[in-house]
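[Q] Does anyone have a clean structure-token version of this?
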Amino acid sequence: MNSWINLDALWKIVVLGLLAGAGLPALFAVGLRAISLPGRGGAATTSGADDRILGSNPAGIAAGALCFAIVLAGIGWGIYSVVAGT
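[A] Here you go.
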């Protein structure tokens, strides 16, 4: 092991950076996709003049809510880590 490079700390930084830097936005995108899944009617419905799409699939809404909860937990953990100084 090189005395200038701590490989143990380096791989931890790389893995955490990949999870937080690419994993959380990807999970957020999966949650958005899950919410927009059509229900049994075939197509998602639009709400009047708005161009928002309301998903009508309960399983998709539950999966999206789980994805968003994981993302919020990751953000909360990051804020806690910064404030606690660890």
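[Q] Thanks! Anything notable?
[A] The first strand starts at residue 45 and ends at 46.
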